[in-house]
Write a structure and sequence with these properties.
The protein has four helices and 13 strands. The protein is an alpha+beta fold. Helix 3 packs antiparallel against helix 4. The radius of gyration is 21 Å and the shape is globular.
Length: 335
């Protein structure tokens, strides 16, 4: 029996207790087969590690983005960046160095909102100040995932874009927006070994033309933007499960959540739905996106990216396999 690596349990004594019978069964099956059972790993171990933040060298010039550790209006407790948070991390692709003249965080407070199509719907905030543009994407978006990386594509003008430090659950990009600017970057939500949802940011100002009213766009935005109170609602569920003393410091940890569980919660608004889906209980089937299909046992099904076995094109570490789900026997998904 093959169980996807994306099956992860929530923290706390209750989820671990639920996992014990499964561990005992694994040991028993190993004994029956005449083979030594492997040592069970912790059910709460994160299945992926996002890039970690790096401290600037003494004397280096850096730009900071926002002093608030959570979206505006959130009642969440401050969260220190962790190795698994993935936010505020060094980009996986080289980009320009943050210029010394780039405005500091305090200078962005009250800066005019810049018109970037699709930004609001994807949970991104675009601001313009002089020749500078700052775009910050934070919190859960419509996919049920949080932003974990921004990658500047190579090409003319790429040196005008640079990754900025950001709080957990956010990524930020700075751009020198002047005549002749042509920047393309991919903003990624989710973690690689589960699935990453990418939207392409394009910014352009043709040389010799007036400054455009719309500075750029983010590809394929949803029709409706994310719920700004979603993180607070999830924090409430966390407290319901772990007690009022729980500080929700990991609410934006991308390794903490299975996106389809968050999506299901968005539509049903029931804490038991979120908790049971995370803990892979019998009613833990989540909501899939249009380009996904369920795979695995019906009671423990997860969502995988649809694929073509003749031309798989699955993310690294994934294989195009039959869904093995009663209602989607003809589907192939990356798992």
């Amino acid at each position: 029996m093959r169980i996807s690596a994306s099956f992860r349990l929530s923290r706390g004594a209750a989820p671990v207790a639920r996992a014990l019978p499964l561990a005992v069964l694994v040991v028993a099956l190993g004994a029956c087969a005449g083979q030594p059972a492997s040592t069970p790993t912790s059910a709460t171990t994160a299945v992926a590690t996002s890039p970690t933040s790096t401290a600037p060298e003494p004397g280096a010039t850096t730009a900071t983005v926002g002093s608030d550790p959570a979206p505006s209006g959130s009642g969440l407790a401050p969260a220190a960046p962790t190795a698994s948070a993935g936010a505020g991390a060094a980009s996986t692709a080289a980009a320009g160095v943050v210029p010394a003249s780039f405005p500091a965080a305090a200078e962005w407070e009250g800066a005019p909102v810049a018109d970037v199509d699709g930004a609001k719907e994807l949970g991104c905030d675009a601001r313009a100040k002089g020749d500078w543009l700052r775009i910050v994407c934070r919190g859960f978006n419509y996919t049920g995932a949080v932003p974990t990386d921004v990658v500047v594509e190579p090409g003319p003008g790429a040196e005008r874009a640079f990754r900025l430090p950001a709080e957990p659950g956010a990524v930020a990009l700075g751009v020198q927006y002047v005549a002749g600017t042509a920047v393309t970057a991919r903003i990624l939500w989710g973690v690689p070994d589960q699935r990453r949802f990418a939207h392409t940011l394009t910014l352009g100002w043709p040389d010799g033309k007036p400054r455009p009213a719309t500075l750029g766009k983010l590809s394929d935005p949803p029709k409706k933007g994310p719920d700004p109170k979603l993180a607070d609602s999830i924090c409430k569920c966390e407290k319901e499960q772990f007690g009022d003393s729980h500080d929700c410091s990991d609410v934006f940890d991308p390794n903490r959540w299975v996106p389809e569980c968050v999506r299901t919660f968005i539509t049903q608004r029931h804490c038991q739905v979120l908790n049971s889906c995370q803990e892979i209980e019998m009613n833990g089937k989540g909501t899939c996106m249009r380009d996904e299909a369920h795979y695995g046992f019906t009671a423990m099904a997860r969502c995988g990216l649809k694929c073509n076995p003749k031309k798989p094109e699955c993310p690294e570490g994934k294989t195009c396999l039959g869904a093995r789900e009663q209602k989607s026997n003809d589907s192939w998904v990356c798992q």
